[in-house]
């Protein structure tokens, strides 16, 4: 199915904040999902929808996070089309629940073509592919290693395992983000080696558009804070801000 409009979001980090803040994030995101359903806009999630998501398949444990958001996505996925979900470094321990909700799950990266434009979509913490030449850090490779995951889940109960990872992820989220230079350098290198028009990611929480000689790098920023995302339509692609109250997109004019 062809879509005339596409939305790309990342870094919602549901579950990382106070109850009041989480509720507002959920309400604004559900409003976006319902708007995309009504307008038939294709949705793409580029990682860290949750903070932290960890399923225990052998024990049938699924985190009690974002149920209303997942219900809204499930309705969208069945009514419009499966939303693409590229899992990030905070929500990659998924073992079937997202597929049951109707998502199209991608644990690595996705190449997309829209109207003869080539897009590389990724979360931003690296990819497992030599041809892209953006390897994940050793720690992120460890967290995704099946042997490590199996051992971790045998040692810790679902509740203890999730609590431990949430505590650690809150520290790394504050320490590692808000520096745009590493991903800017990486995007420039990828453009130099591959025929791409756009690279889109999240991860470092700094919304921006960086123009290089061979293409544009778009960082989606954070939905939890900025409500920013990329909107693609017949006019091209731009970084926008979602206004849930008025149900529309406004051009993003920078962090204030």
Automatic annotation (TrEMBL):
Pfam family, one: Metallophos
Keyword Coiled coil (UniProt): no
Molecular function via GO: metal ion binding; UDP-2,3-diacylglucosamine hydrolase activity
Coiled coil: none
UniProtKB keywords: Cell inner membrane, Cell membrane, Hydrolase, Manganese, Membrane, Metal-binding
GO annotation, biological process: lipid A biosynthetic process
Keyword Cell inner membrane carried by entry: yes
Span of domain Calcineurin-like phosphoesterase: 7-207
GO cellular component: membrane
InterPro entries with a match to the protein in the record: Calcineurin-like_PHP, LpxH-like, Metallo-depent_PP-like
Alphabetized SUPFAM superfamilies for the sequence: Metallo-dependent phosphatases (SSF56300)
Protein name, entry field: Metallophosphoesterase
């Amino acid at each position: 199915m062809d879509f005339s409009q596409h939305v790309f979001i990342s870094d919602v980090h549901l579950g990382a904040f106070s109850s009041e803040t989480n509720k507002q994030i959920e309400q604004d995101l559900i409003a976006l999902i319902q708007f995309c359903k009504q307008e038939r806009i294709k949705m793409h999630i580029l990682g860290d929808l949750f903070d932290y998501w960890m399923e225990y398949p052998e024990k049938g444990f699924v985190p009690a996070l974002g149920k209303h958001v997942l219900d809204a996505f499930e309705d969208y996925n069945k009514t419009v089309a499966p939303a693409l979900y590229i899992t990030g470094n905070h929500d990659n321990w998924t073992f079937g629940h997202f597929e049951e909700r109707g998502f199209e799950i991608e644990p690595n990266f996705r190449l997309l073509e829209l109207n003869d434009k080539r897009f590389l979509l990724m979360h931003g913490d690296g990819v497992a592919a030599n041809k892209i030449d953006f390897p994940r850090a050793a720690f992120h490779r460890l967290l995704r290693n099946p042997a490590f995951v199996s051992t971790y889940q045998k040692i810790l109960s679902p509740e203890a395992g999730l609590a431990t990872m949430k505590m650690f992820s809150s520290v790394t989220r504050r320490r590692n983000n808000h520096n745009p230079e590493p991903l800017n350098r990486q995007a420039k290198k990828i453009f130099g080696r591959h025929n791409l028009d756009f690279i889109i990611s999240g991860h470092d929480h700094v919304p921006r558009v960086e123009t290089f000689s061979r293409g544009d790098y778009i960082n989606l920023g954070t939905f939890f804070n900025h409500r920013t995302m990329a909107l693609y339509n017949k006019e091209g692609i731009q970084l926008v801000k979602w206004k849930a109250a008025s149900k529309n997109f406004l051009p993003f004019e920078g962090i204030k």
